Automatic annotation (TrEMBL):
Taxonomic path: Bacteria, Bacillati, Actinomycetota, Actinomycetes, Mycobacteriales
Residues forming coiled coils: none
Designated name of the protein: SEC-C motif-containing protein
Organism in which the protein naturally occurs: Williamsia serinedens
Listed Gene3D superfamilies: 3.10.450.50
Record domain YchJ-like middle NTF2-like: where: 1-90
Signal peptide: none
Length: 93
């Protein structure tokens, strides 16, 4: 989760795509260069430990743009595939 937030913050589309599960990964990912992501608060974690194959992370990600400040709140699902964690999907809200 933290590496994906950092990738959004620095505009690393390659890492975002590589850490996105192939079954839900979008064909194209365009990041808005005017949005600056500056803070991540992890609110809740369910499973996702060393012996789990899936897990959830609830977070709040804070950003700034010309339109002002904003917060993205999401509960994300992750799955482990062949020993590696992938973002599967999330529910915003």
């Amino acid at each position: 989760m933290r590496s994906r937030f950092t990738a959004f913050a620095v505009g690393d589309v390659a890492h975002l795509r590589a850490s996105w599960h192939p079954t839900t990964r979008p064909e194209c990912l365009d990041l808005d260069p005017d949005v600056r992501w500056y803070r991540l608060d992890v609110v809740d974690v369910v499973a996702g430990g060393p012996f789990d194959d899936d897990g959830e992370v609830a977070f709040r990600a804070f950003h700034r743009s010309a339109d002002g400040r904003g917060v993205l709140a999401e509960r994300s699902r992750f799955v482990r595939d062949d020993g590696r964690w992938y973002y599967l999907d999330g529910v915003v809200g």
